[in-house]
């Protein structure tokens, strides 16, 4: 008899599997399939017309580009923060460690209001950038990226930090004994070891930014075909009582997000 389950010394696979799949089914799969079934009341041709609308595609491109840029920034600086917290002891470490988790507890609307005041002409960042002729308050792309960096940073830090703590120092010592300099050790020893966790943190930050609404609505000018994010398109359709159109755009957003996350997970699996 062929068994598709790998043997394990830990019992309870059937119960754990059934409970996990059932939990996932009722809380995730059922609502998603309900939304998909409702959206396809418009018909396949109507579904295609709705998602190929220029305003929807423009909002999708703006959401993807800002989320990607913010995730890249979070990946770089999140690694620096995670490395500092995991490898060094310094004054105020616990305060910094608590501040990393602050975006989890802080309402996104509060973050948007705070950042909008910061980017105003009288704000600290807005006044500083104004010296160089850069009007941050009117630069929606910059403002949205800043908001997405704020809400996405904890995902990268908390994903990388435990992996960095468990990093084997013997590989670093071996590289130094073989004559490798700092950059060679960093690119050929550290990065390959942390790449799976880094990809996971990047994917989480990217997905979080793609669906963000609360903080972005206060910063972006939300001009159609220019600086409008996809969640705003969905909310605007709901406010105009176009529930079917909102569900179609929502399903389109789910499909795009799933494909991107699946691609990142696939690349991560190939690395492992």
Automatic annotation (TrEMBL):
Keywords: Membrane, Sulfate transport, Transmembrane, Transmembrane helix, Transport. InterPro entries: CysT_permease (IPR011865), MetI-like (IPR000515), MetI-like_sf (IPR035906), Sulph_transpt2 (IPR005667). Pfam families: BPD_transp_1 (PF00528). The keyword Membrane applies. Coiled coil: none annotated. Residues 60-265 form the ABC transmembrane type-1 domain. It is found in: Cell membrane. The chain crosses the membrane at residues 20-44, 56-84, 104-132, 139-157, 186-206, 213-234, 246-267. It comes from the Bacteria. It is a multi-pass membrane protein. Belongs to the binding-protein-dependent transport system permease family. CysTW subfamily. The complex is composed of two ATP-binding proteins (CysA), two transmembrane proteins (CysT and CysW) and a solute-binding protein (CysP). Part of the ABC transporter complex (TC 3.A.1.6.1) involved in sulfate/thiosulfate import. Part of the ABC transporter complex CysAWTP (TC 3.A.1.6.1) involved in sulfate/thiosulfate import. Probably responsible for the translocation of the substrate across the membrane. This is Sulfate transport system permease protein CysT. The lineage of its organism: Bacteria, Pseudomonadati, Campylobacterota, Epsilonproteobacteria, Campylobacterales.
């Amino acid at each position: 008899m062929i068994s598709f389950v790998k043997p394990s010394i830990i019992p309870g696979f059937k119960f754990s599997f059934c409970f996990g799949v059932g939990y996932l089914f009722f809380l995730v799969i059922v609502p998603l399939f309900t939304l998909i079934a409702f959206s396809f009341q418009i018909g396949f041709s109507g579904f295609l017309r709705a998602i190929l609308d220029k305003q929807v595609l423009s909002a999708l491109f703006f959401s993807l580009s800002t989320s990607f840029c913010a995730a890249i920034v979070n990946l770089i600086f999140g690694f620096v923060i995670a490395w500092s917290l995991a490898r060094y002891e310094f004054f105020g470490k616990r305060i910094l460690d608590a501040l990393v988790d602050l975006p989890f507890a802080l309402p996104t609307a509060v973050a948007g209001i705070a950042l909008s005041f910061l980017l105003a002409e009288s704000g600290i960042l807005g006044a500083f950038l104004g010296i160089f002729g850069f009007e941050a308050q009117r630069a929606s792309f910059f403002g949205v990226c800043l908001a997405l960096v704020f809400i996405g940073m904890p995902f990268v830090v908390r994903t990388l930090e435990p992996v960095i703590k468990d990093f084997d120092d013997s590989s670093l010592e071996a590289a130094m004994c073989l004559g490798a300099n700092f950059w060679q050790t960093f690119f050929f020893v550290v990065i390959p070891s942390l790449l799976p966790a880094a990809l996971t943190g990047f994917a989480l930050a990217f997905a979080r930014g793609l669906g963000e609404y609360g903080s972005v609505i206060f910063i972006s000018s939300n001009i159609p075909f220019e600086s409008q994010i996809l969640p705003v398109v969905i909310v605007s359709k709901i406010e105009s009582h176009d529930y079917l159109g909102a569900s179609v755009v929502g399903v389109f957003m789910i499909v795009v997000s799933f494909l991107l996350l699946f691609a990142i997970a696939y690349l991560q699996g190939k690395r492992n």
